[in-house]
Design brief:
single chain, alpha/beta, TIM Barrel, Elongation Factor Tu (Ef-tu), domain 3, 2 domains, six-stranded antiparallel beta barrel, 20 strands, binds iron/sulfur cluster
Length: about 425
């Protein structure tokens, strides 16, 4: 797949990024995704991260211009009523020239194969493929790719790889469901919002306590601490250090979760995994592919990971079944050490920055170059876009940024951040 230097490395799997908007798509492309996945219409499992038809068309054109593929999620668990407009929607996706459909429901799968047979179908993780017979079944049905269930260990992934010839896609990073990959009725039961139709309200992240029926105003904490208990709240998946093993196991695509996440998150995580894959690719060339399992990522990758924020990390089922260590029982907070402050909108000696968090003179910033290089600069002064000096830059404003050293060689769409703790 394509490295950040534009060179193809066929030994590396595809890096597949989540995008919830046209802007996130551009950021993911900028930081080195080989492919992106997005949702549109009412058929995606992220009802709050769908792109309109015009943005889908523009996104596909933009991605293809940069050699990046676009897959579209059509992965609701459909009811009969959901099928009525499906043919027109599939037709639209064909005309938009998307590169694949991500489907979890067998009925939707059958319709897609019948109505748009030229569009490759990738089986969604919602279909919960956990064994080789399942994999063989979907291969016989014409799936081009399987996104395996997140509840698999490395040995099981290797066994499925041996059994089938179709492409295997694996989640390597992002939020986890306590249920089998979103096949969950918790949200529907508690809030009326159906996770299987893309409307999850994430009650697995809520704080829970015990209430006695005669004392409705009194809540008793359960087990953990005075903040209550988060009994369903999983830590986030991170298989960064297992990329060599996954490559060795024959993964064709490594997928990042997070279509609802921020531009900063998408950009920073894609950048991190791009850099990791490129590092592994370079080491494979240097040492020989048979040494793949011995490749370790340097400490800089962990330091970068901590700057992006998470619920804490788990390797989920990779080596063993998760335990209580893989849950976050005492809170839901992300723990980022850094916050995004802006996006480069125009290059030059004083680049034009779209501000996302307040900026003051004297602030120390990190410019996130492509690759893993962070360039540290200090804000010396700022002007508004008309050139008038300002003492503080507020979110959503456009400013010219003067720094020491000067940010002379920045690229469009690059991100800036600052330390917050
Ligand atoms: S409530 Fe939690 S476990 Fe259930 S689908 Fe939503 S995010 Fe997943």
């Amino acid at each position: 797949m394509t490295g950040i230097d534009g060179e193809k490395n066929p030994d590396l799997p595809e890096l597949l990024a989540p995008v919830g908007s046209l802007e996130k798509l551009k950021i993911a492309v900028h930081y080195g995704a080989d492919a992106v996945y997005l949702g549109s219409g009412q058929y995606s499992l992220r009802a709050h991260a769908v792109m309109g038809p015009d943005d889908v068309v523009a996104g596909v054109e933009y991605a293809h211009r940069h050699g990046v593929k676009v897959y579209v999620t059509v992965n609701i668990m459909a009811h009969n009523r959901d099928l009525i407009e499906l043919p027109a929607y599939l037709q639209f996706l064909r005309e938009a020239k998307v590169d694949g459909l991500i489907i979890g429901d067998p009925g939707v799968f059958a319709m897609a194969r019948r109505l748009v047979p030229e569009l490759p179908v990738h089986l969604s993780t919602q279909a919960n493929v956990t064994n080789r017979e399942s994999a063989l079944f979907w291969q016989s049905q014409g799936a081009e790719r399987l996104n395996l269930a997140r509840e698999l260990g490395l040995v099981e992934i290797e066994e499925i790889r041996q059994a089938v010839r179709l492409k295997l896609e694996l989640f390597v990073h992002g939020a986890l469901c306590i249920s089998y990959s979103g096949r969950c009725s918790l949200s529907l039961y508690m809030t009326g919002r159906d996770a299987n139709l893309g409307q999850c309200a994430h009650p697995c992240r809520y704080r829970y306590a015990l209430r006695e029926e005669k004392r409705p105003d009194q809540y008793f904490p359960v087990e953990e601490d005075e903040r209550g208990t988060y009994i369903f709240n999983s830590k986030d998946l991170c298989l960064l250090h297992h990329l060599p093993a996954l490559i060795k196991a024959g993964a064709d695509s490594l997928k990042i979760e997070g279509r609802m996440k921020s531009i900063y998150y998408v950009g920073a995580i894609v950048r991190l995994y791009r850099a990791a894959l490129d590092y592994i690719g370079a080491e494979m060339r240097r040492l020989g592919p048979e040494q793949l399992a011995k490749i370790n990522l340097p400490q800089a990758f962990d330091e970068e990971l901590q700057k992006i924020g998470s619920r804490g990390y788990t390797e989920n089922f990779f080596n063993q079944s998760p335990t209580e260590q893989d849950m976050l029982y005492d809170g839901i907070d992300y723990q980022p050490t850094h916050a995004p402050v802006g996006i480069v909108r125009e290059v030059g000696t004083a680049p034009l920055i779209e501000v996302r968090n307040a900026l003051d003179p004297g602030d120390t910033l990190e410019y996130l170059d492509q690759g893993l290089r962070n360039i540290e600069v200090q804000v010396t002064s700022m002007t508004n876009s008309a050139g008038a000096p300002i003492l503080r830059a507020n979110p959503n404003s456009m400013i010219r940024l003067y720094t020491e050293p000067a940010l002379a060689n920045v690229t469009l769409l690059s991100l800036l951040r600052k330390r917050v703790v």
